[in-house]
Amino acid sequence: MKTSARSGEFTGRHMLMIMLAFFGVIIAVNLGMARLAGSSFGGLVVKNSYVASQEFNEKLEQSREQLALGWTPTFQVVKGTIRYRLTDKDGNIIAATAASVQFRHPSYEAADWSVSLKRTDDGSFEAVQAARDGTWIVQIDSDVGRAAPYRDVRRIVIRNGEFK
Fold first, then answer.
1. What are the residue ranges of helices labelled H in the chain?
2. Using one digit for the tens of pLDDT, what is the confidence trace for 97-116?
3. Which residues of the chain fall short of a pLDDT of 70?
4. pTM, two decimal places
5. What are the contacts of 86-90 at 24+ separation with CB within 8 A?
6. Residues in Cβ contact with 72 at an 8 Å cutoff, skipping those fewer than 6 apart
7. Are 157 and 131 in contact (CB under 8 A)?
8. d(CA 126, CA 128)
9. Please, which residues have CB within 8 angstroms of residue 81's CB and are 6 or more apart in sequence?
10. What is the pLDDT of residue 3?
C-alpha cells in the first residue's frame, strides 16, 4: 500500500529541490564572477611594488612634461602591420630615430612580447608582425633626442588581428 504525502508536508524531495536550487545559484554566480574577472582589468605585474610606488611621482612628472609638448601619438595594428607615428601640434612628424613596442598582458607575464619598429620614408615607424588577439597594455618608446624616451602607454583590445 502506497502512502502519499499530506498536503503541506515537508519531504525529502522538497529538501533535495532546495539544496539543488541553493547550490545551483552559488555555482551560477561563481561562474559569472569568474568570467567578469577574466575579462576585466587584471592589475599590473611589477617585480617590486615598493620600488614601483617610489617611482610613481617621477613617472607622473615625465608624463606632464610630455603632455606639455603637445605631441600626438598614433598607433595602429592593421592586417599584420604595426604602425606608429608621432606628430607635433601642427601635424608635422617628429623626427624620432628609433621606436619599440612592448605588448604586456595585464595578468599573465609569460604572454608578453615586443617588437622593434623600423623607420619608413615618411618618418613614421612600422613592423610587419601579426598581433595576437586579446587585451594588452602597450608601451611604445620613441627615441626623440631627449634624455628620456617619449613613452606612450595605452590599454588596447586587438580583435581579429586589428586595432585602429
1. 12-39, 49-54, 56-69
2. 999 999 998 877 888 999 99
3. 1-5, 41-45
4. 0.69
5. 86/142, 86/144, 86/150
6. 86, 87, 88
7. no
8. 7
9. 126, 127, 128, 129
10. 60
What pLDDT shows up at residue 40? Answer: 72
- Which three three-digit cell numbers place residue 57? 611621482
- Total tally of structural domains belonging to the chain: 1
List of residues 6+ apart from 164 with CB closer than 8 A:
76, 77, 78
Domain membership of residue 28 (yes or no) is: no
The total of other beta-carbon atoms located within 10 Å of residue 143's CB is 13
Buried b (16+ CB within 10 A) or exposed e, 121-137: eeebbbbebebeeeebb
The kind and range of the H/E element at 97 are: none
The C-alpha atoms of residue 96 and residue 93 are separated, in whole angstroms, by 9
Single-letter residue type at 143: D
Beta-carbon contacts of 108 under 8 Å, excluding residues fewer than 6 positions away, are: 42
Domain assignment of residue 124, given as a range = 49-158
The CATH number of whichever domain residue 72 belongs to comes to 2.60.40.10
